[in-house]
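@here heads up, posting the sequence + SMILES for the 2-oxoglutaric acid run so it's all in one place. Ping me if the SMILES looks off, I pulled it from an old spreadsheet.
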Amino acid sequence: MTAMRVTDQDWPAITERLDSTGWALIRGLVPGQASDDIAAGYDREDLFRNRIVMRRHGFGSGEYKYFCYPLPAMVQSLRSELYRHLQPVANAWNARLKSPVRYPPNHEDFLARCHAAGQTRPTPLLLRYGPGDYNCLHQDLYGENVFPIQVAILLSDPGKEFEGGEFVLTEQRPRAQSRAIVAPLAKGDGIAFAVSHRPVRGTRGDYRVNLRHGVSEVRTGRRHTLGVIFHDGA
Ligand SMILES: O=C(O)CCC(=O)C(=O)O
Ligand SMILES: [Fe+2]
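bot reply: prediction finished. Complex structure tokens:
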């Protein structure tokens, strides 16, 4: 049924990129028409539980809305299918970081764990930026239960529908300055990245590197993103 191209991605290559750099592009994840359809949903009040005006919270400028359950079919299938491919990576990261937490193969079972711990609110979100808007560097943590990888999907065409508004990551290694990464996303591309930290192999075993993500200022036009976070929120 799905218009999403999850299963036919090169998951071994994506896994290798995630392991070596903490982020990976997932090219052509959502076709153009489906991207437009998801973005057009922003104006439908019935799809969402909450609207956040970023400036009010010091998060940046622009706004976003959290979907309510049941999620739109496309968002629901993206979330459960992406989880299935990212779950082995998440388990390997936790093993390397000596965390005892392991993630079950099915997203539903992980959500049951979140819900039992009081994290019952859906976290997938739709973001909208206009000229002058930006998203400050942050980490999407919503409680004790954390799935360590998330996916953001660009729904607008850079250079055509908007200018500026680049997806950025910063990585901070222990005792070092932060370094910036600009992800070259096209419309419909996804980026999988570490929510808060990832393991890096050092001479004395794996150590923990911190990541944050955000969006540089949009200069012109309108930019929409779908955020897929796998843990639910309190
Ligand atoms: O708009 C973006 O590209 C960033 C969205 C974001 O922060 C997220 O999906 O968690
Ligand atoms: Fe985010």
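MO: The first strand starts at residue 23 and ends at 26.
MO: One more: DSSP finds five helices and 15 strands in the chain.
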